[in-house]
Amino acid sequence: MSQAFSRSPKHCAEQQGIKNFTINNLPKKLFFAFSAFFTSVLTLIFLIYIILHPAKPQFSLCQADLYKLDLTLGPAHFLNSSIQLTLQSKNPNTKVGIYYDELQAYASYKGQQITVDSPIPPFYQGHGESNTLSASLAGSELPVGPSFGYEVGKDQTAGKLVLNLKVNGRIRWKVGMWVSARYRLNVDCITVMAFGAQVLTTGPFSSNQGSRCSTSV
Question: TM spans, by residue (predicted)?
């Protein structure tokens, strides 16, 4: 005679509850495991970043040639300008590379932009490397404020012209295979040119300098 074994409804309910509890908690366990792993990776990257402590890139002004600065007076003031700019960029880091993205160069005078943004091709700079950057800056019929002609007249009398040559863009740090997010880059170079009494359509007026530009990241 065979013996039949049966489980009570209560026992089956308990077993089903345990099974459902295990299945329902499996995604949570995977989530917590992934979160812990991801947090550990971010912490390791942050520690590497802090230990290496990447220094911001260094820029210096090599040469600036002013070919044209022509002001049209009238009810509205318009400016035509042409400047050739040469900069040197250096990565001072020995263990960190730098990607340069979305670089735009322009010139300003007395706080007024006198050329349109000129793009500089993106590039990568290895450990301790230096690169020479060139840009042709130009402005055609750019509106300027009423005080622009007065300021130019003052500089003609003083015999010198002070321009700000600026580069804006974004950079990314590279440590081994890891590449950081993009950071805003702002470069400001000041150049002083001899400025005679003649109208600046007979340039160029040149400025050869090796001065360091201010850089912020």
Answer: 30-52
